[in-house]
Amino acid sequence: MTSRSSGTRSGSASRGAAVRTVRPAYHCDACGFAVPKWVGRCPDCGSWGSIVEAAPAAAAPAATPSLAARAPSVPASPIGAVDLEEAAHRPTGVGELDRVLGGGLVPGSVVLLAGEPGVGKSTLLLEVAYRWCASAPAPAAATPSLVVSGEESAAQVRLRAERTGAVHDSLFLATETDLANVLGHIDTVKPGLLILDSVQTIASPEVDGSAGGVTQVRAVTAALVAVAKERGIATVLVGHVTKDGAIAGPRVLEHLVDVVLHFEGDRHSTLRLVRAVKNRFGAADEVGCFEMHDGGIRGLADPSGLFLSRHADPVPGTCVTVTVEGRRPLLTEVQALVAPSVLPSPRRAVSGLDSARVAMALAVLERRCKVRLHDREVFAATVGGVRVTEPSADLAVSLAVASASRDFPLPADLVAIGEVGLAGEVRPVSAVPRRLSEAARLGFTRALVPVGCGPAATGVDAPAGLSVTEVPDLGAALRAVADATRAARD
């Protein structure tokens, strides 16, 4: 009796395992996050209505078959025998972009350029396509460039090209949103440079999901990367960004490409920055500076002048510091305004600076240096629309606020570099000799730096004409500024 019942249970268990129902899987079409059941809002990225049912996965075989080895199509070779010319950079003709890329575009490389809508990505890449054709060795038709637009019509792109002077016989234009048609244009034109604007608008009919979804973006990017590597086509993909500034689509998108660039800028400012986030062919901490104007976009080889204001006489509440964007030192002017307030909670407004660091600097000034700020409104900003987030600007922010509060101007030839701690100490920062050289080049004659960052400590001579003073804390910096101001008046 016992054996019979146990056999019945084992038989029913085996039948249940054989007919086990596979639950449908769901994932977010915006970020790829998987959930066990349908929900209205993605728990990961917060998108509404983006949860879709995934295609059922194929059942795994009962036993994994053995994989037989086969001869590779290209045998392995000693690393010293690899031809370096295959990874040689070709300049695009846009100097600031070449600086970020490490010298130019490498044939077969894939670059992802992401940025906010309207920041100027299409304008910059149209200029790159034109320069690629104009600077190509004869015959120019041997390496044409192909621009595929999935967002604008051909007439819209032609209007922009006429406005910026980017019309060339070897620059080809196509408007497509189908991956098969894009590959057909590549076969016909045989370009040396391919620009796809944008990867989120291209879809493949063989892949489930809508254009811009995780599955489509992954499939389109993988196909284009394979074509670029096989045919040696330098490829630039334009990517959308989310409201948080991250690149839209799956994270694997950044792993598939060789270079990831972020195009940054404010619509109300002419300044644009191209920042390298990933670069397999060069440094990943370079920054290129551009200026938008009516005739298009142009590189700024020396952008420091954009971030400085010009005053006939020194003005209270202004101080100049030297920041480092990538490897490039940039002089930046910090401005502050302190005004009486009748409100119980005085306002604190910040533009272009880290609000948390500014609030900390105000607290240190009031507690350590007895600068009265608790009943006053404080406004702090940078000049030229540049955003400064590194701690090296703390000393300049503190001096500008103290100058505005006590209504005394700082010397016009002074730069301040250093991080301010909660105890009021001025902490060392990196690349001080490079910052001082940039300040001396632009005519500044005095500099305040942390202890241990001066010429005696670093062993690097101070630039000619620049007097460097080491300050241990914020109080010593205020005293040094006051002495310099009195000396200038006398």
TrEMBL record:
One of its GO terms (biological process) is recombinational repair. It holds the Pfam family AAA_25. GO terms for cellular component: cytosol. Keywords: ATP-binding, DNA damage, DNA repair, DNA-binding, Hydrolase, Metal-binding, Nucleotide-binding, Stress response, Zinc, Zinc-finger. ATP binds at residues 115-122. Residues 86-241 form the RecA family profile domain. It comes from the Bacteria. PROSITE patterns: RECA_2 (PS50162). A motif (RadA KNRFG motif) lies at residues 278-282. Residues 377-490 are annotated as: Lon-protease-like. One of its GO terms (molecular function) is hydrolase activity. The middle region has homology to RecA with ATPase motifs including the RadA KNRFG motif, while the C-terminus is homologous to Lon protease. Belongs to the RecA family. RadA subfamily. DNA-dependent ATPase involved in processing of recombination intermediates, plays a role in repairing DNA breaks. Stimulates the branch migration of RecA-mediated strand transfer reactions, allowing the 3' invading strand to extend heteroduplex DNA faster. Binds ssDNA in the presence of ADP but not other nucleotides, has ATPase activity that is stimulated by ssDNA and various branched DNA structures, but inhibited by SSB. Does not have RecA's homology-searching function. Plays a role in repairing double-strand DNA breaks, probably involving stabilizing or processing branched DNA or blocked replication forks. This is DNA repair protein RadA. It comes from Actinocatenispora comari. The lineage of its organism: Bacteria, Bacillati, Actinomycetota, Actinomycetes, Micromonosporales.
